[in-house]
Design a protein that fits this description.
heterodimer; A: 553 residues; alpha/beta; five-stranded parallel β-sheet; 49% helix; B: 132 residues; 5 helices; globular; Cbl-dep_enz_cat (chain A); Methylmalonyl-CoA mutase N-terminal domain/subunit (chain A); isomerase (chain A)
Chain lengths: 553, 132
Amino acid sequence: MNDQPKGIKEGLEKWRENRCQMKDRDFRFETVSGMEVKDLYTPLDIEDLDYERDLGFPGEYPFTRGVYRNMYRGRLWTMRQFAGFATAKESNKRYKYLLEKGQTGLSVAFDMPTIMGYDSDHPRSLGEVGRVGVAIDSLQDMETLFDGIPLDKVSTSMTINAPAAVIWCMYIATGEKQGVRPEKLTGTIQNDILKEYIAQKSWIFPPEPSMRLITDIFAYASRHVPKWNTISISGYHIREAGSTAVQELAFTLADGFAYVEAGIKAGLNVDDFAPRLSFFFNAHIDFFEEIAKYRAARRIWARRMKEKYGAKDPRSWLLRFHTQTAGCSLTAQQPENNIVRTAYEALAAVLGGTQSLHTNSMDEVLALPTEKAVQIALRTQQILAYETGVANVIDPLAGSYYVEALTNKMEEEAEKYFEEIEKRGGVLACIEQNFFQQEIADAAYRYQRALDSKQRILVGVNEFVNPDEKLEIEILKIDPKIEQEQVARLQKLRRERDNIRVRETLEALRRACEGTENVIPYILDCVRAYATEGEIIQVMREVFGEYKEKPTF
Amino acid sequence: MARKIRVLVAKPGLDGHDRGARVIARALRDAGMEVIYTGLHQTPEQIVEAAIQEDVDVVGLSILSGAHMTLIPRVTQLLRENGADDIIVIGGGTIPEDDIRALKEGGWVKELFTPGTPLEAIVEWIQSNVKV
């Protein structure tokens, strides 16, 4: 046994001598993130790997091989297509369509005004209503959005961050209207404000009050909505903004640690909220790099939670995650090729052990997806789950010299970033110093330059181009009329509701924001009185202030 | 010696996707232009005010949120109203072909660059369309 590495070493040297006489293609052999890769991996690359310490068994510490003992043999991942456009009524129809086609969870996309805390009739909302998601102004819209969809039967993920507390309260109140108690509600609010400052840039308040809203949600949920995932710590947008895989991994986990520290600092017991934290990663096109990223993420998280933050409950050690295939890897040229890209990316997510998956539609680089395109995207997951056999075996790539070496490398590189972040004073300090933003901008620029110089090939874009390409796929159009209709509905609501009660609940919220009490019960009261999202956020804006970023490039 | 071409890169509307805007701003600067980046969440009024104050030759609008049919004409209109219609308006982002045609034929924008355009192509377009 002990002689084996020596034998391999000698064999490798001999092999390399012979191999060096062969000419390689003129190509840059590196991952999509620019990490150099060797031509061959052998047991020598994972000499220090200790199976029990570094891998363990699925569902057991440190969870490198997956968070559940039986993984997809017990239950397939949740197929969750991100959807929402136009009005609540239109989106409700799309949800019913997706559920009927076999989707197993809902995922709500909101429009920009909703994401930024403006009502549909605010001057800043002009031209944006219902464009990139559904417009939600009040509880009334939320009731329409889930009309005929029982909230005790479906789990809902909502991509909402700065105003997450308000939208979540609307969801809880919709449950109340349907007779569903909060403890029965399952789903996720993204609620990850740190990545907004870093990458997605849809913020409202400055970091400190934003963090308070998040810990208020942690505290409220642990008592009243125990099955809810209170945050989905998101690397997805960091990657879409142009980061490398290592940056995505490191910055996302650093954000996660910051939330854990904030929760502990707010006086919560780590095991009371940590099991409800979840993650959201990107699945980019470099197959092995992505798989290694997910495996490294689980191992890093488990170790930190146990060793640094002293979590005792094994559920606090688990890194559960949703994955979305990379929007930024898709091309406007030859859009049908995107079906193929998405399929490979989905395969990486599944081999990496994701809990839930969104596959992008081929037309998303052009507009919101059509029904046909979204059906193909969903079918891509179903073919993966039911036809390919990849869900039969747990973590089938474990022990691959390349995958294990790359997993170790990802962990090492992430650790370097953690050190750098700590040296700079932590995540919030790094945001203020524009550290993350600059690292990501540099990576995005390098990537674009590599494409322009053809050091990297993008099929249909800088190579294998169809001259005189004509777009032959259908595009979803949002009728500009829906903005006027939404505004009319909102103004009717403002006339017909009990405006005295609205004022009282908003005033009570203002006092809660000025003090230190948990604000969630106050937001719930505002929502129940049909105060609009814009009105509630405006009160908070007045107390908390607004965040401004220093523009750099 | 000719003066440098001045470009304002702006993100109108509520959308926060600034990857494209920032990559292009940097490429234009590397090509020797003077670049001002407005940062995020700008109203058409703020953009036009900055363009006039900075005395730019080109305003580049980056939009991914689908609000291009409202925001691009608004910026061009405001430039005209302020007697600054010598400033060239170009744009980029996720914009369907029909809308590109409508915006160009309506005279709202000189050129639109969609995803996949090499940086060089944008640099060259500006260099050959701006007289300094």
